[in-house]
C-alpha cells in the first residue's frame, strides 16, 4: 500500500539520532547543503508517487471544502435538523509511533462524530475507533459547539462516563444512534484513502518548508 511505500522509503520513521556538531559556520553550511539536497531528492521521489484511486464518500455525506489542508471536519451531512460532522485521525498521529509499523495501526482510525442541533449551544460528541469492519465508541460527551474543531483540545468539561461502564442496552442504543446517522464501517475506505492523500500533501509541504527555512537562514547569515 501507499503508506507502506512511504514507510519503506525510510521517511519519517527513523528515530532522530543525537549527533554533536561543532559550532562552525563552514560545517553548518556543508550540513545545510547535504540536508537540502536530501530534502529535494525525497521531495522529487514522493512527488512521483501515484496517488491511490479516488474513493467517494458514502452518500449522503459530502466532503467539507478545504478539509484536506485544515484540521476541521472532513465529512458533513444533515439528518433532520441535525448537522453531523466527522473528523478523522490516525492512531499514529495521536500517539507518536503508535501502531505506525503494523497493519493494526494503519487500519485503526480515530473518528470524532459531532451531532449538533440548531438553538443548542453544545453538541453531542462521540469519540470512536473506526476499523475496516467495525465502529467502536470510546466516549460520549457534550461539548461546546464552536470548540469542536480538533482532537487535541483537552476537554475542560466532564468527558462523559467510561463507556464500558454503561449498561449493555444503553451502549447498544448509542451504537444504534450513530449507525442511524450513517456512521458505520462503510466510512472506512473513503477516510483511509483521504488520509493517504492528506499525509502525502503534508509530507510534500514538509520537505518544502523545512528546505526553505534552512535556505533562508543560510542566506541571512551570509548577509
Ligand atoms: C446558549 O448560550 C447563551 C449565551 O451564553 C444563553 O443565553 C442561552 O440560554 C444558551 N442556550 C441554551 C439552549 O443553553
Ligand atoms: C452504513 O450506513 C449506510 C447509511 O445508513 C447504509 O446504507 C450502509 O448499508 C451501512 N453499512 C453497513 C456496513 O452497515
TrEMBL record:
Recorded GO CC terms: mitochondrial matrix
Highest taxon of the lineage: Eukaryota
Pfam families in alphabetical order: MAM33
Listed transmembrane segments: none
SUPFAM superfamilies: Mitochondrial glycoprotein MAM33-like
Coiled-coil features, chain-numbered ranges: none
InterPro entries with a match to the protein in the record: MAM33, MAM33_sf
Family matches, as PANTHER family: EXPRESSED PROTEIN, OS01G0771100 PROTEIN
Protein name per the record: Mitochondrial glycoprotein
Organism per entry: Nyssa sinensis
Origin organism lineage: Eukaryota, Viridiplantae, Streptophyta, Embryophyta, Tracheophyta
Amino acid at each position: 500500500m501507499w503508506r507502506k511505500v512511504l514507510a519503506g522509503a525510510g521517511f519519517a520513521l527513523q528515530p532522530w539520532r543525537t549527533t554533536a556538531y561543532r559550532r562552525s559556520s563552514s560545517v553548518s553550511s556543508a550540513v545545510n547543503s547535504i540536508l537540502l539536497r536530501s530534502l529535494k531528492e525525497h521531495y522529487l521521489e514522493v512527488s512521483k508517487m501515484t496517488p491511490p484511486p479516488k474513493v467517494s464518500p458514502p452518500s449522503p455525506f459530502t466532503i467539507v471544502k478545504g478539509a484536506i489542508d485544515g484540521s476541521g471536519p472532513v465529512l458533513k451531512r444533515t439528518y433532520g435538523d441535525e448537522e453531523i460532522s466527522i473528523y478523522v485521525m490516525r492512531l499514529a498521529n495521536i500517539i507518536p509511533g503508535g501502531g505506525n509499523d503494523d497493519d493494526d495501526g494503519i487500519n485503526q482510525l480515530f473518528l470524532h462524530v459531532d451531532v449538533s442541533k440548531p438553538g443548542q449551544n453544545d453538541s453531542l460528541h462521540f469519540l470512536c475507533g473506526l476499523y475496516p469492519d467495525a465502529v467502536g465508541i470510546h466516549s460520549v460527551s457534550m461539548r461546546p459547539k464552536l470548540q469542536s474543531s480538533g482532537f487535541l483540545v483537552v476537554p475542560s468539561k466532564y468527558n462523559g462516563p467510561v463507556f464500558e461502564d454503561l449498561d449493555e442496552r444503553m451502549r447498544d442504543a448509542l451504537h444504534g444512534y450513530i449507525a442511524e446517522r450513517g456512521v458505520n464501517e462503510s466510512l472506512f475506505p473513503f477516510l483511509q484513502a483521504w488520509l493517504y492523500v492528506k499525509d502525502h500533501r503534508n509530507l510534500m509541504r514538509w520537505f518544502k518548508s523545512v528546505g526553505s527555512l534552512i535556505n533562508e537562514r543560510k542566506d541571512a547569515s551570509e548577509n
